Amino acid sequence: MKVILATDLIGVNTAKGEHNRDFLDKYGILTINMISSPGAGKTTLLEVIMKALKDKYNFGVIEGDLYTSRDARRLLDHARAVVQINTCGICHLNAEMVARALEGMPLDSLDIIIIENVGNLVCPAAFYLGETCKMAVLSVPEGSDKPAKYPELFKEARTVVINKSDLLPYTDFDLPGCIKELREINPEAEIFVVSARTGEGVENLLGWLEERVKRVSPVD
Amino acid sequence: MHEFSLICSLLETVIESAEKNGIKNVTRVKLIVGECHGALPEALSFAFNSLCPDTVCHGAALDIDIKEGVLLCTACGHKFPYAVLQNMCPGCGSFNPEIISGRELLLEYFEGE
Predict the structure, then answer these.
(1) B-chain residues within 8 Å CB-CB of A148?
(2) A10-215: which CATH topology?
(3) Which positions ≥6 away from A55 have C-beta within 8 Å?
(4) Which value does ipTM take for this structure?
(5) According to the 3-state scheme, what is the secondary structure of chain A?
(6) Is B46 exposed, middle or buried (0-12, 13-18, 19+ CB in 10 A)?
(7) Residues A147 and A138: beta-carbon distance below 8 Å
(8) How many Å lie between the alpha carbon of A188 and the closest alpha carbon of chain B?
(9) Could A1 and B106 be called an inter-chain contact, meaning their C-beta atoms sit closer than 8 Å?
């Protein structure tokens, strides 16, 4: 016997992601899916963002790592709620994992949820989690050719953060070339050049984030 | 590596449907993979063979068809075939094509008794 299914396998995850999105929209929460290579500085950037804005907004963090809860522990002081997901070898978060993480969060009292995805420039881009938008983080030591080499993520990201700008003088990172390639891949992305370590450029990124939070309001 | 997650979704769907249709033994599963998707057929087969034992799909064949990718230039409307790392429209030279076909990962049907 033949059974016709015509089921889109990516669609199975996307449908769960849309369910998460509806749920988060009801609470009026801005949700950002943060994606980068391992070591690009996502957690440090998150610390800086939350330190600067935690008196104005309540943050929730969903922390995705293959193993350990080291990153989650770093963020406990700044966020209202932190949930660690250990994927135990899986290279990306999916919508089902995020749905389970949301069950344990005080959504009533949150304004922003940042999902720190597993460090990986490839697979996380293919799995919609229910986020309002994706933020791609690229760091100077990785090299300026990354957007061209991993276009899928940079095409989807609403904003791209080039981190570790304090290292620009010590590397051959081609900043104008990198920005030009990013514009070719994604003409609409907002690009911020920052150093989470020194604070350089962070102000503009915070401005963008505040602007986004104001645009999200609870759905009646 | 995310081929494993995709095969997990595939197995979930097939197992559920086999149960509904009273099928005890799945013999063939047909999958259509769009060229732009990036999932590797070899990795999909490997994941399928690793995850099948102990399920109704044990011993089933996985047939994979590749569907060609087609891009549409958003500036001039020219259609051109997908190629890895090729974003430039051969018609007008602009860089923002949309994928109009070849993005799917479709579980088309399965067979069993």
Answers:
(1) 85
(2) Rossmann fold (3.40.50)
(3) none
(4) 0.84
(5) CEEEEEEEHHHHHHHHHHHHHHHHHHCCCEEEEEEECCCCCHHHHHHHHHHHHCCCCCEEEEEEECCCCHHHHHHCCCCCEEEEEECCCCCCCCHHHHHHHHHCCCHHHCCEEEEECCCCCCHHHHCCCCCCEEEEEEEHHHCCCHHHHCHHHHHHCCEEEEECHHHHHHCCCCHHHHHHHHHHHCCCCEEEECCCCCCCCHHHHHHHHHHHHHHCCCCC
(6) middle
(7) yes
(8) 10
(9) no
Decide: B70 and B78 in contact? Cβ < 8 Å.
Answer: no
Mark yes or no for CB contact A94/B5 under 8 Å.
yes
In degrees and rounded to multiples of 5, residue B18 shows phi and psi of -60, -40
- Domain ranges within chain A, ordered by starting residue: 10-215
User: Model confidence over A71-115: pLDDT tens digits?
Assistant: 888 888 999 999 999 987 778 899 999 999 999 899 999 999 999
Distance CA B28, CA A2 (A): 9
Q: Is the pLDDT of residue A1 over 80?
A: yes
Interface of A with B (CB under 8 A): 1-10, 12-13, 90-92, 94, 122-123, 126-127, 148-149, 151-152, 184-187
Cβ atoms of B49 and B59 within 8 Å: the answer is: no
Residue ranges with strand state E in chain B: 26-34, 61-67, 70-73, 79-81, 97-101, 105-112
Q: In the predicted model, is pLDDT for residue A219 greater than 60?
A: no
More confident residue, A11 or A181: A181
- Residues of chain B positioned with their CB less than 8 A from the CB of A85: none
Q: What is the mean pLDDT of residues A203-214?
A: 95
Q: Say if residue A56's pLDDT is above 60.
A: yes
A contacts of B108 (beta carbons < 8 Å): 4-6
Q: Nearest residue of B to residue A184 by CA position?
A: B95
pLDDT on residue A220: 43
CB A113 within 8 A of CB A133: no
Q: Which of A172, A189, A56 is CA-nearest to residue A110?
A: A56
